[in-house]
Amino acid sequence: MMLTNRKMFLAWLGLVVVILMVLIFGWTASGHPFAGWHDGVKSLARNVHYVLAPVAGDAPEQESRLDNGMVKLTVDVSPAHARVRVMNISPFYQPGMELAPGSYDIEVSAPGYKTQRRWVSISGRSATPVFRLSN
């Protein structure tokens, strides 16, 4: 009996799959190469580690800078175009700016909205106070 090219290809492909399964998952006690497939997949999944890719513009030294005792301040504002000012320091506010832990006088304003101003205490590694302006 002669095999056609397609049948020959499928036979070789099946053999390659079985060999790969044996090499990856190993033979089980029952001698069947697919009997341990589920356990093999679970053992491979346990060894998968997720790595977070750096965001564009992030510098590797930022991670070490967090250990300097400073707190990253980002004010969550609505409307998004609102102006944020930290009244008791001289640098202008920038999202993610690093400040020493403590209390800060924050003012948020936007044309057509009521200005909000309050003292915010920050500590830890980051702080995100929320300001929602109303008309």
Give me some keywords for this one.
135 residues, 2 domains, alpha/beta, Immunoglobulin-like, 24% strand, three-stranded mixed sheet
Describe this structure as you would to a colleague:
The chain is an alpha/beta fold. It has 2 domains: 5-46, no CATH class; 67-132, Sandwich (Immunoglobulin-like), CATH 2.60.40.10. The chain contains 3 helices and 8 strands. It has helices spanning 5-25, 37-46, 61-65, and strands spanning 71-73, 76-78, 83-86, 97-99, 102-109, 116-122, 126-127, 130-132. The protein has a 3-stranded mixed β-sheet with strand order 4-1-7, with no helix packed on it. A hairpin with a 6-residue loop joins strand 5 (102-109) and strand 6. The radius of gyration is 30 Å and the shape is elongated. The N and C termini lie far apart (87 Å). Mean pLDDT is 75; it is low at 48-55 and 57-65.
CATH topology name of the largest domain? Immunoglobulin-like
Which descriptor suits the 3D outline?
Answer: elongated
CA-atom Rg in angstroms: 30 Å
The overall average pLDDT, rounded, is 75
CA-CA gap between termini: 87 Å
CATH architecture of the largest domain, please? Sandwich
How large is the count of helical segments? 3
Count of the separate structural domains = 2
Percent of residues in beta strands: 15-25%
The assigned structural class equals alpha/beta
Q: Strand count, sense and closure of the main sheet?
A: 3 strands, mixed
Strand order across the largest sheet: 4-1-7
CATH class of the largest domain: Mainly Beta
What is the string of helix and strand elements?
Answer: HHHEEEEEEEE
| CATH superfamily annotation of the largest domain | Immunoglobulins
**Total DSSP E strands:** 8
